[in-house]
Amino acid sequence: MARQTDFSPRVPVTALGQPYPPGSWRRVALLAILAVGAAAGLVFGLFPQLDLAITALVYDAARRVWPYAYDPTLQTVRDVNDMIVRLVAIAAGVVLIVRLAAPRAAVMWLPAALSLRAALFVLTTLAVAPGLIVNGILKPHGGRPRPIEVTPFGGTLDFVPWWSPFGGCDSNCSFASGEMSSATWLLAAALLLPAPLRPLGIAVVLAWAVVVGGVRIAMGGHFASDVLLSGVLTALTVWVLYVVVMRPGQPTPLTGPDSSPAGRGDRAARSA
Q1: C-alpha distances in angstroms, 58 versus 45, 64, 117, 148, 226?
Q2: pLDDT of residue 13 exceeding 50
């Protein structure tokens, strides 16, 4: 039988509306994070009075009070964020323990995406971004007073821009926002969702982070630059650790067999 020749045009799958080539979304995400960080850093660095102008919108200068400082609805948002962060961290810890202590049970009861590597990624990003960078280094040593502490809003300390380490705050300072960092950290969990759900998960987390950051500004706890740059630092940390820990492009729980110790244990258990 004569061999038929296929003369149909070769069309790249991306032209047919299929997913972008592997790695392209990561490059776009990195560029977006860096662009937002550079823009926020430069704008609020060159025009620090913008922080005061934004905060003035939620400060009652006539009565010299913060009308939203003790608002129960805003406090509920803070409590919900804290609860979500704790639940995700506990879940990652449970996955880590089960994967290490009972790999056979993990094969039967845990989805493949909840691997040892995934648990390590979630817990490491929590420890590095909100833990070490924001609450371990910046807040104790940043020196920037909170809005409720500066003289334009009835406080006793001088206002300083986000980049200045010479403010009068001794500890638990305004730069950067710990709660904004923890809310943005939830991106780590969103990145572990199945590929079709991942964009939605990322969008939901970013929207939630905006809400949490807005609450902290309204309550007089942080300036806008504290919130924005805290989100940028956390998102960048999540991006870097995703590449380092999850190794996208290599076999992982999301794209193929897991090459981590837990993954090897899973395969051994399946063959036993």
Answers
A1: 21, 11, 43, 11, 16
A2: no
